[in-house]
Amino acid sequence: MLLAEKAFTGEKNNGFDVLYHNMKHGQISSKELTDFIRERSTIEEAYARSMTKLAKSAGNFSQLGTFAPVWDVFKTSTEKLASCHMELVRKLQELIKEVQKYVDEQAKAHKKTKEEVASTLEAVQNIQTISQALQKSKEIYNAKTVEQERLRKEGATQRDVDKAGVKAKKATETYKSYVEKYATAKSDFEQKMAETAQKFQDIEESHILHMKEIIQAYAQSVDETHIQIGEVHNEFVRNIENTSVESLIQKLAESKGTGKERPGPIEFEECNTAIATEGAKPRKRKPFGIPGRKKDKDTDSTSLLFLTMSTASFVSYAHSFISFCLCL
Asked: Is the whole-model pTM more than 0.70?
């Protein structure tokens, strides 16, 4: 037996309503799956951008010291990781388009199904209406029959008993007519409900299969990204292992080396008095003058030089002069 027929029948005949709304819930699930994948794509994109920013930071780290070349390994590896996550974003965006396309197709299919099961809905409403009328007519029939019997037992007048009998008979006929109507409505309802239940089940099976295909595509995209990330990580580990201490020292020597030739020995050189004397001559100093004070034309220039010298300058000059005299 069909699951729909087996689990969605009952006295109130509400199975159609449950199955119909369950079909509509499938469309809600599709939209929610779209939102989930879109949110995952947003997270992956934000992570990829952060990794790209981190890679740039690694490229800007200090290039001084023996460890500096290792930052290139970090930069390259981080850029590849960012690329892996951006590739996943691209795949998820493509998957979102496919899911959205399915949501649109699903909406059209549901609209078509609603038109196709309209007669079943009428049969459901008909049998529900007849069921209510049947129940009410049964209650009236029972009440009128009991009333007639009560009057007979209590010894009421024949007229009252006959009058109650007429009402009981009418209630009996109404009750029987609804029983017959219910039988006809039930037959029509069960036939249409069986066809509609099959249709709902086909829709649900197709929906679940399609959702599983979407999830499998999602899982495959994530799995491929994880494989790529694993490869990048393994490459990073290999590059670090292959970066030996000797290679780092060699790179330092090649990039920062100050030369391979050693300077020769320094020998004793005799003092060249002419050069020494020339180097010992005092430099002319600009006389110190008090701003605003006029120079005295009659003042001797040599005397003015000594007067304007500071004590330290005068002592230095004297020492130089004495050395010069001793050399003579």
From this structure: no
* 312 in any annotated domain: no
Q: Domain residues for 96?
A: 15-255
By CB neighbour count within 10 A (0-12 exposed, 13-18 middle, 19+ buried), where does 185 fall?
buried
pLDDT tens digits for range 175-204:
999 999 999 998 998 888 888 888 888 999
**Would residue 163 count as lying in a domain?**
yes
Q: How many domains does the chain have?
A: 1
- From the list 258, 280, 288, 283, the residue with the least C-alpha distance to 327 is 280
Cβ atoms 75, 63 nearer than 8 A: no
pLDDT at 17 over 50: yes
Are the C-beta atoms of residues 159 and 203 closer than 8 Å to each other?
no
Phi, psi of 188 (to 5 degrees): -65, -40
What is the rounded distance in angstroms from the CA atom of residue 100 to the CA atom of residue 270?
Answer: 96
Number of H helices, E strands in the chain: 9, 0
| pLDDT tens, position by position, 39-97 | 999 999 999 999 999 998 887 777 776 777 888 889 999 999 999 999 999 999 999 99
Alpha helices in 117-157 (DSSP H): 118-153
What is the CATH number for 151?
A: 1.20.1270.60
Q: Which residue has the tokens 């239940």?
A: 197
CA proximity to 98, closest of 42, 183, 46, 38: 38
> pLDDT tens, 275-312?
767 655 555 555 545 555 554 444 444 444 444 444 44
Nearest to 226 by CA among 81, 90, 94: 81
Distance CA 221, CA 216 (A): 9
- Here the contacts of 160-169 (C-beta below 8 Å, separation 24 or greater) are 168/141, 168/144
Closest alpha carbon to 81 in 58, 99, 114: 58
Q: What radius of gyration, in Å, describes the C-alpha atoms of the chain?
A: 53
Do 110 and 24 form a contact (C-beta atoms < 8 A)? yes
Domain assignment present for 22: yes
